[in-house]
Write a structure and sequence with these properties.
Elements lengths: L2 E5 L6 E6 L3 H20 L2 H17 L1 H12 L3 H19 L26 E5 L5 H14 L3 E5 L6 H12 L7 E3 L4 H10 L3 E6 L3 H12 L1
Parallel strand pairs: 3-4, 3-6, 4-5
Antiparallel strand pairs: 1-2
Helix pairs in contact: 2-4, 3-4, 3-6, 4-5
């Protein structure tokens, strides 16, 4: 088992030792997410919307806890961290309305028949950076869940704690256990497997240009 020591950057105190996911662990999570996603996608839009509102409510009840955790793990000022935790709640509330209000535009085909299918992709992999863990993760997982997908999140090795806690809060709110999974690990292991796994249908990436280039090339292949 490979682990990572998560350190408070202000005090250099050891906050937690986190177990890192290996390739086999990613594959197992993908398989479980696929099963959870099929059940989630079969729910009526209003049920998915209600579940996301429940998730938002649980996050709201834990804003202070999440903010304190971000201060300790990321070194953010408490005012910023409170805003970030509240923003996760707000993003969930915003996208909770999406399943009930499916709309959009399609490009007309001259002399043809235009058909749009509002169908989930399946499993979405999200790779987030170290600097704004909660907010950037929420920008990815909230719309993906609203659209009926399952989500796997790989947080940065340095700052995984609030994302891990959000994964726990999702289950506490009633979301299926395998629908939103947080997989701490090295980018060359977890992130790479997200890109190469045939059943991860979309990658959401925020990070360096160097890594983003590799992600784009891998996704293209």
């Amino acid at each position: 088992m490979t682990t990572c020591e998560v350190i408070n950057p202000a005090t250099e105190e050891l906050l937690r030792t986190v177990e890192l996911t290996d390739t086999a662990g990613v594959d197992d999570a993908v398989a479980r997410a696929q099963s959870a996603q099929r059940k989630w996608a079969r729910l009526a839009p209003a049920e998915r919307a209600g579940a996301l509102r429940d998730f938002a409510a649980v996050v709201d009840a834990h804003v202070e806890e999440l903010a304190a955790l971000e201060v300790a793990n990321s070194g953010h000022p408490i005012g910023s961290a409170r805003w970030e935790a509240g923003h996760v709640r707000d993003v969930l509330q915003f996208y909770a309305g999406a399943p009930e209000r499916l709309s959009g535009k399609q490009i007309p085909v001259a002399g043809g028949l235009d058909v749009t299918f509002n169908e989930p992709l399946g499993v979405v992999g999200i790779i987030t950076p170290w600097n704004f863990p909660m907010t950037i993760a929420a920008w990815g997982f909230a719309p993906a869940l609203a659209a009926g997908n399952a989500v796997l999140v790989k947080p940065a090795e340095w700052t995984p704690l609030t994302t891990l806690r959000l994964g726990e809060l999702a289950v506490e709110a009633g979301l299926p256990a395998d629908l939103l999974c947080v997989l701490p690990g090295a980018g060359e292991v977890v992130g790479e497997r997200f890109v190469t796994h045939p059943d991860v249908r979309k990658i959401v990436f925020t990070g360096s240009t160097e890594v983003g280039t590799r992600v784009m090339a891998g996704a293209a292949a």
